[in-house]
Protein 1
Amino acid sequence: MDFDVRVLPQLSSMILQLIATVVLFFILRHFLYKPVSKFMNERKEGIQSDIDDAKALKSEAIELKSEYEFKINEAKTEGQKIIEDSRKRGEEIKQDIVNEARVEANSIMEKARVEIEREKEKALEEIKLQAGEMAILIASKVIDKNLDMNLQKDMIDKFVDEVGVDKWQN
């Protein structure tokens, strides 16, 4: 058994190996590299498209969020305005009711004053009549003279006119 150990390979073997490598390179390039490169480019473009879509959706979501926050703040402001308007309207209604009650109370008090004045005048008239009748009774007993009723009434009216209404009221 002899082994021949060489440091450099044979030239024919090296050329064949080189030709086989070049042929294998072109075959692999044609059947493997181009489809894999095409697939990788398509995949890269798909990923880039997804990233671009995600960025667009994110910016759209940010815009929608800003818009919704603005609308929410607007709704809060409008709600506060409605509450304030309702509060003001309630105060106005309250003030109207109080004013109506005051007017009605003043009206009732005025009617009561008028009624009291009327009753006072009526009472004064009655006192005047009773005082006149008593004065006539006393005078007729003192004089023992019986005057007729018309003469008595004339005397009472004359007496009241002379004395005046102010003295009867005191």
Protein 2
Amino acid sequence: MILMGVELTILIFDSYSLKDKRSTVKSIVHRIRNRHHLTTAEVDEWDLHNKAVLGFGVVGSNRLLCRKQLESALKDVEEQYEVEILDVDWIEV
């Protein structure tokens, strides 16, 4: 069994309040859950209005497929949202 995850730090453009940030983060979380079937959550930087740290995770039996699924989710975030990816930390157990 493979446990794989990614901790993604993003800078959210055009976010001037926590309400703006919450709207964007909520959209990202729901999109990734529904399209890529990953476990998702906001894991840090709750008080900053333009920065978020998101966690995506997957459990599977094939390391390559798990990695491809996470990479696809990262690409989706980068292409569909007005955000800049600042840091990506890969976690594997």
Protein 3
Amino acid sequence: MDYKKAFEINKETWNKKVAVHAKSDFYGLDAFKKGTSSLNIFEREALGDVTGKSLLHLQCHFGQDTLSWSRMGARCTGVDISEEAIQLATSLNSELNLDATFACCNVLDTSQYISETFDIIFTSYGVIGWLPDLKPWAQMIFERLQPGGVFYIVEFHPIAWMYDYTVTPPELKYGYQQKEAIFEEYKGTYADEHSNIVSKEYGWNHGLGEIISSLTGAGLHIDYLKEHQESPYDIFPGLVRNKKGLYEMPNGLYPLVFEIKARKL
């Protein structure tokens, strides 16, 4: 298929989403500006003290996580495909008097825009499903990591993406290792289901084996893979909130989130 056209359609959708997301309760921008961190328990525990470390945030949207790491003392760079997202991220960085930098590019082209290498590369929640092939993604991560540097991803579990959530109840429709693109067109966005914007999206499913093999094939060493029954975000139908403030399926049939930490030796 024409991947360039698919990326352009996805970018158009994300450009439209920025203004809606910035006003949404989901992103809580006003509270963020007052000092609330957008980072969740998984990534905070995994990366710990980032003071003085250089950090590259892949697919950063409008930069809240990037700027949260910056507030914690990291020297941050964020990249995203959406011009509107990068424009807002840059504006927030100035408004909050932080020192992050941002670049607008397809994440697969990061090395064409950024030559620096980093102590940490970070990406999270709804990122790899926009990529048809993870091998160039993993190679770029290897290129941008310093020796001894850490790559960390926390992401929604591939089993969760086997369902079509545009119908009620959700239908088990897509393959765990499906190679064909998944195209969806629907009104609204996960941050505001009542928005009138029309989301047109191409996505690709990636199983855990493919993800791990892409990273090791690029030369990274896997420290761990963890799977969790809980999600910090209430974005799938029918989830219930537990005592820790996280969301889980009532029947616990499959995990909702996974983490991978890897390093460049």
